[in-house]
Amino acid sequence: MKSSQKVIDYLNFLLGGELGARDQYFIHAQMYAEWSFGKLYDRIYHEMQDETGHAQLLIQRILMLGGKPNMQVSEIHIGSDVPSMLKSDLELEYRVQEHLKEGIALCETERDYVTRDILVRQLEDTEQDHAHWLEKQLRLIDLMGLQNYLQSVTAEVNQQVNTH
């Protein structure tokens, strides 16, 4: 199936963002695990898996449209403490939201409604799940204070360890 080259190029741009988000969440999850913030590890590792799934859908769509996936990862921003990590992740989600909205508009202009629907589902996930949860965590830090918040997210980390 052939598609507009504009759509394929934009999907590759979005793919770079999803790969960057995956990598940023991955390193942040590992940092949370190291610091024994198991509840944060669990959630951010889950977000990393979601971003991997988003990237997979984009790759599949690019291939279906006759394009070649560009696996160039966009820039990532690693925080140095819990608040800066949460803020960095939230800024990432806000950027992804804007890029998805631009992609949705492009797909409508190019009359590619199947791709548009894929991007709409990713936008819903980004706005209603990822960004909203991060906003709540930052609000909790403001309400509870950082030390109380950190105490509330401390738990054993049940990482899957690869012994190969």
From TrEMBL:
Pfam families: Ferritin. Keywords: Ion transport, Iron, Iron storage, Iron transport, Metal-binding, Oxidoreductase, Transport. It catalyses: 4 Fe(2+) + O2 + 4 H(+) = 4 Fe(3+) + 2 H2O; Fe(2+)(in) = Fe(2+)(out). PROSITE patterns: FERRITIN_LIKE. Gene3D superfamilies: 1.20.1260.10. Fe cation 3 binds at H46, D50. Fe cation 1 binds at E18, E51, H54, E127. One of its GO terms (biological process) is iron ion transport. InterPro entries: Bacterioferritin (IPR002024), Ferritin-like (IPR012347), Ferritin-like_diiron (IPR009040), Ferritin-like_SF (IPR009078), Ferritin_DPS_dom (IPR008331). It comes from the Bacteria. Transmembrane segments: none annotated. Belongs to the bacterioferritin family. PANTHER family: BACTERIOFERRITIN. This is Bacterioferritin. It comes from Moraxella catarrhalis (Branhamella catarrhalis). The lineage of its organism: Bacteria, Pseudomonadati, Pseudomonadota, Gammaproteobacteria, Moraxellales.
